[in-house]
Specification:
The chain contains two helices and seven strands; from the N terminus they run βββββααββ. A seven-stranded mixed beta sheet has the order 1-3-2-4-5-6-7, covered by helices on one side. It comes from Heliobacterium mobile. InterPro entries: Staygreen.
């Protein structure tokens, strides 16, 4: 997986949200162009269903409260119909590209994270949706801070 190229990310804030508020409802719809490699992040109170195609290769995410704390909940449609091989391929691709998805959300909504720095430490919970039990999973993928392009790294000196 290649890292995020910020020049290929286009962000659209829709009516009902600003660059810094609200936290809830705040939903992300990430789509892409296979031809150009461009990524399109829509931030709105509702998912951008008008951007979702029959391929169902978008990533959906939203802020939720779980156990009295904020989480970033990500939904990925792995199913691929009744064909288990298609589901296996889609699962592989979603897992390979998920860090790019999370980088896109974190970078694309950076004014929001600057205004709400505590959300950088919220758990990222990912639901892989499939009719096949081996691909249907709910997993913790760290925190938004793990996907910041501006992460501070510690330098070890001897």
């Amino acid at each position: 997986m290649a890292g995020l190229n910020p020049e290929k990310l286009f962000v659209d804030y829709r009516s009902g949200v600003t660059a810094t508020s609200p936290v809830i409802p705040r939903r992300y719809t990430l789509t892409h162009s296979d031809e150009t490699g461009d990524l399109f992040l829509t931030i709105a109170p509702e998912y951008a269903y008008d951007k979702i195609t029959a391929l169902r290769d978008e990533a959906l995410a939203e802020w939720r409260i779980m156990d009295d704390r904020f989480i970033l909940y990500v939904y990925l449609y792995v199913n691929g119909g009744l064909d288990k091989g298609t589901s296996a391929r889609r699962n592989y691709i979603f897992r390979r590209e998920l860090p790019l998805v999370l980088q896109s959300i974190r970078y694309g909504d950076r004014p929001f994270f600057a205004m709400h720095p505590e959300l950088d430490q919220a758990p990222v919970i990912v639901y892989f949706d499939s009719t096949h039990p081996e691909y249907r999973r709910l997993e913790n993928w760290g925190t938004p801070a793990n996907y910041s392009l501006f992460r501070k790294t510690s330098k070890i000196t001897s």
